[in-house]
Write a structure and sequence with these properties.
Strand order of the largest sheet: 3-15-13-12
Number of strands: 28
CATH class of one domain: Alpha Beta
Distance between the termini: 44 Å
Number of helices: 25
Strand content: 5-15%
């Protein structure tokens, strides 16, 4: 048997073990070393799509002459004009009994006066069914299921470049990009039937993000020119946002990474918990067991919309999302039911969503793969590693799913904690020679072949699909050169002890603790890097912990090595350049949270950063004001890249990896993903509210 045959046989053996409930994990899984020839076969095998279904109403597959101004959608008046007829609205049978009992108004009274009309991909769908998904745990690997239901003022189209209306019906920029006026939909309602108006946006801006108790510093997404946004209510459906400097990237923020947040909050619901509107809010919070009203407010409100569904309070919280929490969340599952006041219809007038319920189960990595193989999952990509590809492909027909390999994944990044609370470790990590040595010690070619079947490309940690990154940037210090790594560590004075492990300045062995979550890296990958670093005298102990715990430790500043960095694409970087400067992620900082605090408070709090980080913050202030693609934009982009590379802030491993994506063969109106990544908001550009189950 040739080498290719042996590798295929190894893949089939692993598939058989996993199907029998004996999933091969750890170093043994690294035996599946599929070369480029087999990788090409695997890629080709997933390229076919199901044929488009015949449409009884205008669809993307069969538009019947319908040409909307915005791709794949339009306002009711536009659609009715193009169709030459009025749409008659149809209700989901799920709500029939409640309507009959007078508990819900008829669908025509629940929809806005100007609903958004969606052109479905294949056909107007059928109501019913439960969309089954998986996450690792609460607050761990759950952004994909969140993206099934989440909405924002605007949305990124599935071409991944066009920004289209969503909750907002329209917007208009001023010529200098300092002001933007949004128009909402008349008659839009929250999921409890209460009106959604500009007051809910004003409440979010003035009473949440600009309230100094809730936010001592205004979140950077709402700052420009060193000053926070100002909001002006024009009427119940129109408002104007004003910035001290041009902010052309605002819409990009709302449409990509910021799509998991929402710039509005139901004032009628949250006001009772806010001290400004309820003088007894603090007293009531303490009576309920909370420290004060601020802690209580953050318990029930979060900018990360997924977190709001966790407490029992979620059962009473209104939302604009396609599905609302139906039963109290626990550590095993989360269940959502269709929102009867959702603001979209299809081209036949059927209110969306078609699917009645979302069922999110929380399973570890091994059990998640088994659930997919058993046909218990309808859509899954987040957290599905390439190492699982052979077994998933082997069982594709049996599991009743289709497996594809869209681009968008990268090998795991690595960052050392430059602001570690241990002074001795901080001194080591802060020396750029150490970080460069650790990069040179990594054998990326071996990692690519061992972990990812040779499908990726060794590369530095860089923004993707941007015009200012060069091949030389991608190759920066990625060559496996342990001799050079050893020279750098010797130059630092890190002498080897009797057992070959280097010693810190205090004479103790240089032993690092790498606590990782499998949401961000496989145990096999971490073990490989552990071996590379031990070979140059840096000892590493590894320990798998939960995602929640990694984030907690990151915030506390005591973690040695951190990994939660979502590599930014250009639309994300345009709007949120903080993704490429300390602390790189607010919810789970890599390092430098105290530097950011110092910068944002103008030296009033935190810790003064080094000169290179100060320069990054200065670039941030100007970056927000420049037009994407302009000469100055490119100049600043090149400087961003240079500073991060020279200081080896984040160590990259492999780039250009495909992301295995599983879709049930029963699920219709699902197009092939063109990218699979958090920073493109997971499924959001591909319109999950018009998915349905074909009979």
């Amino acid at each position: 048997m040739g080498s290719i045959g042996r590798r295929l046989a190894a893949g089939r053996l692993a598939a058989g073990r996993l199907a029998a409930g004996r999933l091969a994990t750890g170093p043994g899984a690294r035996g599946l070393r599929i070369g480029s020839a087999i990788a090409a076969i695997l890629l080709a095998a997933t390229s076919a799509s199901d044929p488009a279904r015949a449409s009884a109403c205008p669809s993307v597959a069969d538009p019947k002459g319908l040409k909307t101004e915005a791709p794949q959608q339009g306002d009711l008046a536009e659609i009715e004009r193009l169709l030459g007829k009025k749409l008659a609205f149809q209700d989901n049978p799920l709500f029939a009994e409640r309507v009959k009992a007078g508990q819900l108004p008829p669908v025509a009274q629940r929809l806005p006066a100007e609903p958004l009309v969606v052109v479905p991909y294949e056909e107007c769908g059928r109501y019913g069914g439960t969309l089954r998904g998986l996450s690792r745990a609460l607050e761990s690997g759950s952004s994909e299921v969140l993206s099934w239901r989440q909405v924002n003022l605007v949305r990124l189209g599935d071409d991944l470049s066009t920004i289209v209306p969503n909750v907002a019906r329209a917007w208009r920029w001023s010529d200098d990009r300092r002001q933007i006026t949004f128009t909402l939909r008349k008659g839009h309602r929250w999921s409890d039937g209460s009106p959604f108006t500009v007051d809910d946006v004003v409440f979010f801006i003035d009473d949440i993000i600009k309230n100094k108790d809730l936010h001592p510093s205004v979140p950077s997404a709402w700052m420009s020119g060193g000053r926070p946004v100002e909001i002006e209510k024009l009427d119940d459906t129109s408002f104007r946002l004003s910035f001290a400097a041009p902010y052309p990237g605002l819409l990009h923020f709302l449409a990509t990474g910021g799509s998991f947040f929402a710039p509005y909050a139901p004032k009628h619901h949250y006001a009772r918990y806010h001290l400004k509107y309820n003088a007894k809010a603090d007293e009531e919070a303490k009576a309920g067991g909370q420290e004060n009203w601020v802690k209580n407010f953050h318990r029930i409100w979060s900018k990360w919309k997924d977190a709001e569904t966790i407490p029992a309070h979620a059962l009473t919280r209104p939302t604009l999302e396609s599905h609302i929490i139906e039963v109290e969340t626990n550590t095993q599952r989360r269940i959502f039911v269709a929102n009867p006041y959702y603001f979209k219809v299809d081209t036949a007038g059927n209110q969306l969503p078609y699917i009645d319920r979302h069922h999110e189960r929380f399973l570890n990595k091994e059990l998640s793969t088994l659930a997919i193989l058993n046909g218990e999952v309808d859509q899954k990509a987040q957290g599905v590693d390439l190492e699982a590809y052979p077994v998933l492909k082997e069982n594709e027909a049996k599991g009743g799913y289709r497996l594809s390999l869209p681009p968008g994944q990268t090998g795991f990044p690595i960052a050392f904690n430059l602001t570690h609370r241990d002074p001795a470790l901080r001194a080591v990590f802060s020396d750029v020679r150490f970080r460069r040595a650790m990069s040179l010690a990594i054998n990326r070619e071996e990692m690519n072949e061992t972990l990812w079947f040779g499908l990726g490309k060794p590369a530095a940690a860089l923004p993707l699909n941007v015009p200012f990154v060069t091949d030389a940037d991608r190759a920066h210090l990625i060559k496996h050169d342990p001799a050079a790594a050893n020279r750098l560590l010797d130059d630092m004075g890190l002498k080897r002890g009797a057992n070959g492990i280097r010693l810190r300045a205090d004479g103790r062995p240089l032993t690092l603790l790498w606590e990782y979550s499998t949401q961000f890296a496989s145990g096999g990958g971490v073990q490989l890097v552990q071996g590379y670093w031990r070979a140059v005298g840096v000892d590493v102990n590894i320990k798998e912990i939960t995602t929640q715990l990694t984030r907690q430790k990151a915030k506390e500043g005591g973690a040695d090595i951190l990994m939660e960095w979502d590599v930014p694409y250009e639309p994300n970087l345009v709007s949120d350049v903080q993704l490429y400067m300390p602390p790189y992620r607010d919810e789970s900082p890599l390092f430098g949270a105290s530097w950011r605090e110092w910068n944002d408070s103008k030296g009033g709090r935190g810790e003064e950063p080094p000169a290179w980080a100060k320069r990054l913050y200065a670039i941030e202030a100007e970056w927000r004001t420049v037009v994407p693609g302009s000469a100055r934009y490119l100049e600043l982009g090149r400087e961003l890249v240079r500073i991060n590379l020279e200081n080896m802030t984040v160590i990259g491993t492999v780039s250009d990896l495909p992301g295995p994506t599983v879709v049930s063969r029963r699920l219709a109106n699902v197009r092939d993903w063109t990218v699979q990544h958090y920073n493109y908001a997971r499924t959001y550009p591909f319109r999950p509210d018009q998915w349905y189950f074909a009979r």
